Q: What sequence folds into this?
């Protein structure tokens, strides 16, 4: 039986002034399949999807939708033709309700003039029950969790009658449970005959969900494989162009003295509510403590409180016996705390400064780099050249502005700067967010090296796999509190996920060191409540 | 301070403010700051007197005020939406231009650089006396206002319905919150913003017409900061038509009181400050946080 082709792209090329984003890309998606497109950042997968959706015009190439050629179409043409896109950054209007967001642009009306609120609500309810997307149409977007926001996006696309859905990095922001639920929805959509294209860089998801996979590297397709006949290792090699270590090697930890002691730490947020509540932590020299949690549960504030960027309301932070609670950030840094911040462009670098200047920031006042308020430029450049060589920052030019580096190289720059100058405590927040596999491997190896050299490491990450690979101990944050703590390797992703959503939260003392019991999930859940 | 005379004059004072602040509302809800309200009021005032002077019909003057307001706002729309220039700078430039241009045109037309000759005002709307004592009663209580006062009050209700119960309003508000989302849904951000700014010009132009026709002449710089007060009232009213109108009534009341206080112990300047102090209080968030449209001031 010949399969029907839903989307056919041939020889699609898109040039930008400095890069060739897509270089003669062919993509063929069968009707009714889940087709994954994988590749590193900058491989061209997002550009390709924007071209398909009509947001970007290709320089060359042809596109056929259900056999019909598409020429010079816009996003609104795509919607009419049954293409729907769930963007990586949700396109939802926070103060509006779910129903208002869904119908926006194609509103049902009464008397041809006024919005028919009831009809809008009913349409949303019908779509959400049909595909298991439980959602309250009258809730405002700003009150929804990320997972529910994504559902609203999917309902929005379905409301427009899409039979081909494009999902751009849909799982990046979800908890493991939400990912499982999303996959159920996507399979149901496939059953209903819809075609799904999803962009990701998570290899395990591809194997679990997709029927076929198109792999991209540097703007070209490096392979099209059936998900059932491939392995994560093979996909990684196709993505990167060489063999990569998906899991870094780690030695047994040799624990020393406690370096960081956080005791009964609380802090208030903008609205006067507790964003941190009685947090207790201890990290010893040579140990990595990983903090897992859904974003916005106090991880950011915890890191900011330790580094002096957020005032605490009670409790204490002690660094190797010295009380550093509410000291100025610079004083804390000078005591040996290094900080790789979660938002690279916000706090990690000054994009318009040169690489050399960025590498000096935070060390600039130290002896040798400045004298009587003047920076020693020669010394700064020498320092930059050393770090660039050691950390393989590309391009190896201290004078270009940091904004011109790729995300991965910007991250290497921050790591180079922060790891410089013998820190005793290293705080790494989302250290590999948005960087490619090569840079991830580098950052992970660097963190482990520091830990083996006796540095205490606090690792905060939304990527559970990262937490699980690197951490000697894992703490879970929920609602500003530590709700559970485990020895590394004694807990499953699913169990962490349960605590992350507050399911195992008893409201009292955190659950500590519950041994893994992977063959009886029921028992694990019961244990969570103990 | 609460005599009927003061309340009565408060409503008159508030009318141009209400019209201009509704104008500001439509523009800002689409994501464009419209500080040009001041210049639009002034241009509307000038155009309405000019047209009334030559036609003798104040309703033609009203139409001219609306049209001139839209014309000026079209400049603001082109500069900020098409050329994506800074919205504040464009607004300030328009205000300076309007002040100079209206004064210049006054001189060209009437040979005076300060004011126009007086023109006839608008006939009052009233119910026929033959309808009986009830109609007469209504005429006595509320029948003595210039017609545009009622138009302004009706515009408040209309603005509320348009913004919250029509597809146009939903799209306009969405444009002010998240233009790229609106764009991705195939709704033109440019069209929505043009519509918002043009409505803004029409309403503020109407406000200017009221301002001038109520005093029967054009006087240079007669807007006297009302555009800014209207903008303040809109913020004070949390970007809602009813809230903005109530704030305008409060500010109109302050203005009326201030006129009554002239020549008395309290320096009138202090009373004049009230609207601005209240606005700052509102901005700081004392009366619950006011949340501006998320994409306000950002070109798209």
A:
């Amino acid at each position: 039986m010949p399969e029907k082709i839903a989307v056919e792209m041939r020889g699609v090329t898109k040039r930008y002034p400095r890069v060739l984003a897509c270089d003669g890309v062919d993509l063929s998606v069968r009707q009714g399949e889940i087709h994954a497109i994988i590749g590193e950042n900058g491989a061209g997968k997002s550009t390709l999807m924007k071209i398909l959706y009509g947001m970007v015009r290709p320089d060359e190439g042809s596109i056929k939708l259900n056999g019909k050629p598409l020429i010079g179409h816009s996003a609104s043409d795509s919607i009419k033709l049954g293409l729907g896109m769930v963007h990586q950054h949700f396109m939802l209007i926070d103060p509006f309700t779910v129903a208002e967001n869904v119908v926006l642009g194609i509103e049902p009306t009464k008397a041809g003039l006024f919005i028919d609120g009831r009809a809008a609500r009913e349409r949303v309810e019908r779509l959400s029950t049909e595909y298991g997307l439980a959602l309250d149409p009258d809730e405002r977007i700003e009150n929804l969790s990320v997972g529910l926001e994504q559902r609203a996006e999917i309902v929005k696309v379905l409301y427009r009658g899409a039979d081909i859905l494009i999902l751009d990095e849909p799982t990046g922001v979800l908890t493991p449970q939400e990912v499982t639920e999303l996959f159920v929805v996507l399979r149901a959509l496939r059953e209903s005959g819809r075609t799904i294209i999803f962009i990701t860089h998570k290899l395990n998801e591809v194997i679990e969900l997709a029927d076929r996979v198109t792999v991209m590297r540097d703007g070209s397709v490096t392979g099209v494989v059936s998900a059932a006949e491939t392995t994560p290792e093979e996909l990684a090699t196709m993505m990167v162009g060489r063999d990569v270590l998906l899991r870094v090697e780690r030695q047994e930890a040799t624990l020393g003295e406690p370096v960081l002691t956080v005791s009964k730490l609380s802090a208030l947020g903008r609205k006067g509510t507790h964003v941190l509540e009685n947090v207790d932590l201890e990290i010893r020299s040579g140990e990595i403590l990983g903090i897992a949690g859904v974003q916005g549960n106090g991880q950011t504030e915890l890191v900011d409180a330790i580094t002096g960027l957020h005032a605490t309301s009670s409790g204490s932070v002690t660094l190797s016996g010295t009380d550093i609670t509410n000291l100025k950030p610079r004083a804390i840094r000078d005591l040996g705390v290094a900080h790789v911040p979660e938002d690279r462009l916000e706090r990690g670098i000054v994009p318009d400064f040169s690489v050399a200047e960025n590498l000096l920031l935070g060390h600039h006042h130290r002896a040798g780099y400045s004298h009587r308020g003047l920076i020693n430029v020669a010394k700064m450049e020498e320092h930059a050249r050393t770090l660039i060589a050691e950390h393989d920052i590309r391009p190896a030019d201290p004078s270009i502005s940091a904004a011109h580096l790729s995300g991965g190289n910007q991250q290497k720059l921050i790591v180079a700067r922060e790891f410089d100058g013998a820190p005793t405590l290293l705080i790494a927040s989302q250290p590999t967010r948005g960087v490619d596999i090569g840079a991830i491997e580098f950052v992970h190896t660097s963190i482990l090296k520091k830990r083996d050299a006796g540095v205490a490491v606090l690792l905060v990450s939304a990527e559970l796999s990262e937490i699980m690979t690197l951490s000697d101990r894992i703490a879970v944050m929920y609602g500003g509190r530590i709700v559970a703590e485990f020895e590394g390797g004694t807990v499953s992703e699913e169990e962490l996920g349960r605590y992350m959503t507050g399911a195992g939260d008893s409201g009292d003392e955190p659950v500590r060191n519950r041994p893994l019991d992977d063959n009886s999930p029921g028992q694990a859940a019961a244990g969570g409540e103990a | 301070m609460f005599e009927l005379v003061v309340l009565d004059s408060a409503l008159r004072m508030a009318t141009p403010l209400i019209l201009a602040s509704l104008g500001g509302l439509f523009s800002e809800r689409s994501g464009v700051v419209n500080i040009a309200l001041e210049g639009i009021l002034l241009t509307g005032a000038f155009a309405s007197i000019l047209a009334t002077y030559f036609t003798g019909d104040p309703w033609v003057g009203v139409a001219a005020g609306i049209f001139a307001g839209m014309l000026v706002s079209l400049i603001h729309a082109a500069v900020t939406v098409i050329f994506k220039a800074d919205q504040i700078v464009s607004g300030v430039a328009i205000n300076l231009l309007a002040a100079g241009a209206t004064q210049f045109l006054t001189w060209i037309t009437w040979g005076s650089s300060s004011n126009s000759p007086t023109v006839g005002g608008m006939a009052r709307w009233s119910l026929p006396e033959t309808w009986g004592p009830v109609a007469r009663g209504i005429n006595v209580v509320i029948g003595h206002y210039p017609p545009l006062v009622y138009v302004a009050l009706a515009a408040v209700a209309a603005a509320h319905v348009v913004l919250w119960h029509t597809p146009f309003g939903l799209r306009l508000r969405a444009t002010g919150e998240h233009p790229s989302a609106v764009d991705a849904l195939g709704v033109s951000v440019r069209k929505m913003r043009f519509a918002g700014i043009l409505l803004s010009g029409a309403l503020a132009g109407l406000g200017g017409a009221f301002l001038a026709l109520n005093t029967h002449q054009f006087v240079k710089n007669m807007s006297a900061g009302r555009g800014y007060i209207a903008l303040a009232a809109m913020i004070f009213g949390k970007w809602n038509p009813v809230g903005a109108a109530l704030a305008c009534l409060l500010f109109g009341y302050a203005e009326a009181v201030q006129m009554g206080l002239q020549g008395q112990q309290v320096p009138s300047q202090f009373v004049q400050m009230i609207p601005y102090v209240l606005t700052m209080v509102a901005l700081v968030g004392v009366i619950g946080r006011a949340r501006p449209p998320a994409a306000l001031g950002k070109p798209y």
About this structure: The longest strand of chain A covers residues 5-15. Residues 354 and 401 of chain A are 4 Å apart (CA to CA).
